[in-house]
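TEACHING EXERCISE
Course module: macromolecular assemblies
Task: Read the component lines below, then compare them to the predicted structure of the full complex.
Student: A.B.
Group: 4
Components provided:
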Amino acid sequence: MTPIIARFLSNFIFLFHKKGNQTKCLPYLYPPHPLNFFTHKTPSIRSIDLHLSTTMASSTTPLLKDELDIVIPTIRNLDFLEMWRPFFQPYHLIIVQDGDPSKIIKVPEGFDYELYNRNDINRILGPKSSCISFKDSACRCFGYMVSKKKYIFTIDDDCFVAKDPSGNDINALEQHIKNLLSPSTPFFFNTLYDPYREGADFVRGYPFSLREGVSTAVSHGLWLNIPDYDAPTQLVKPRERNTRFVDAVMTIPKGTLFPMCGMNLAFDRELIGPAMYFGLMGDGQPIGRYDDMWAGWCIKVICDHLGLGVKTGLPYIWHSKASNPFVNLKKEYKGIYWQEELIPFFQGATLPKECTTVQSCYKELSKQVKAKLGKIDDYFNKLADAMVTWIEAWDELNPSAEITNGK
Amino acid sequence: MTPIIARFLSNFIFLFHKKGNQTKCLPYLYPPHPLNFFTHKTPSIRSIDLHLSTTMASSTTPLLKDELDIVIPTIRNLDFLEMWRPFFQPYHLIIVQDGDPSKIIKVPEGFDYELYNRNDINRILGPKSSCISFKDSACRCFGYMVSKKKYIFTIDDDCFVAKDPSGNDINALEQHIKNLLSPSTPFFFNTLYDPYREGADFVRGYPFSLREGVSTAVSHGLWLNIPDYDAPTQLVKPRERNTRFVDAVMTIPKGTLFPMCGMNLAFDRELIGPAMYFGLMGDGQPIGRYDDMWAGWCIKVICDHLGLGVKTGLPYIWHSKASNPFVNLKKEYKGIYWQEELIPFFQGATLPKECTTVQSCYKELSKQVKAKLGKIDDYFNKLADAMVTWIEAWDELNPSAEITNGK
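Instructor-supplied answer key:
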């Protein structure tokens, strides 16, 4: 036996890491690289886990009650909140009213909320309000900007409480919080899905140095009933409903892009907020229904660069109503065409090492958008400018975040 | 409207592609890149799909009855086959007897099989038999080599029929065949999992040019009851059982490695067979229990290079018995240590364009193993040599395959 192996075995003491009623097997004094065996650094237990166990200790206190805002874009009365009352009422809502600002949006009694219409957006942002879309649910990102909380959950007003296979109501928000407060594993695939879930772990062959995971920035939830299809698929399969409940949460691997849907989405504002820009869509713009896709491609490239995780899977919501496929086709058709060039662009995008904050990453990405996508259509030059305006507006409304990020 | 957009819309006719009782939305005359709009190539409907619909037309004929071998490594009587009789009996079995060749292995009546013990392996391969492991389930790969079929399913003899959440027996083999006969999508993540499954499709934002997918080379199934944990995790969580049935199949994205378990695995021999080498393990070797992991890393790098797909998820089998964690720790400990260098090696491995066959990819990989891993331990020099011997033996037993691959 070589001395290095002997050393390895003597170091092979495991930390019995208690998480709820679950013991996680994490290597204690196990260094990330075998050549580091002689540097005895005790790994710190993730503060995020301590947070999780502390916060989850009392089931009566809603998780992250004072650290999360729920952002809802809407053009109608928010009757859908009635069904969500047991889960949402303890939280603060930010309602972004789209369309006619003179219309009165009724919010069911008992909810704590602030509401912004177009006049408010124009007043608060001044000329910078040009970066916020109008007559498109992309306007929701204004809510991300004005929030002062660490976490955001955003949901569409045609989304209702889904039931799990046992018939129980799914608390979508609670599941998103669990996703955000437990680490992600973007560097290696775990075949039993989220290794941090109760009853699961890392399987044989999963490198021990990667078992600490990385912070989770985004939690992408799914939809039962009406699936999130594009207009062509809606036209071809008008009666298709999603009835399959897949009981899994997983990390989307580093280097892999995904179609992020904004219908049922949560994220850590401090980690990724400034990149959660939903672009220029709707009124006066050549496309719609690509707001969340654009944000998803941008955040994924930046999360990969900064070593942050993106999870998808649970929770499900019940998506009640399919939008009109003919209207959608009109909104989408340029996007369907353009995305064939956008995907290779984002797949090939790399950010320089110097970009260490979300803001600097995002500004760099806007430059690359202008340089490489501007030739497809002048729209991308405008979008690149709007990306910069968005960051300026974000930093104006979030001056402390600017300092936190070391700028 | 620009002429190119007008052209696009006129081309936007969809092929109503019938698959069983399911209609798939595939773009007809939709080229992979928008700049190719003027080259009107009609995409051929995948022969693989025609095969699928033809083969599945009659539910009384077992799928791929004459095109698939079941490979089972064992040291004991194969009583476990009784439970699998309804599903396996129509197929041919290749049994690879490990350990004492004088021992008689009893196979339940009515199964069609051939059996190879160590004496047979030595006789058939001569000096090249050195590449086949002894006293380790890695010996199973000899069965892959002697098979003359297009598909292989391999299963351990402590794996039984699992039940789905409705209490029905799961026909694991049928699900593997479905996985192998439908395409994979390694270039972009689909949030509703396998888009080719009934009741699912590609979601909004999924590029149309990628919806044809690529051929699936490997189908990796999972395990209910005893999860496939390494020795340290077994020691820490002796009572953990996998009870979560995740109703999903998904493609492991390009560029992402995974821990491939050989317990419940199927693959297309013609597409990836020569890379399915389970390495040097067990008797006379410094490690064990890394046979399938090694094969998994190699096949993933080669599938990524050749544009082939790897799926994981369904089907589940019921894994009955946890192996001894103390024995496992002894087998694994060098692997646990070495894998911290192996993973970065495989993550960084690239193959030259000239490598267009699995054999040439595998030989190139063996060179890189020798050059880059030989310094960790002399074992990797031996392993690299065994990889070459394996390919030589494969080509000797499969001369037609050599021609098929254009060598």
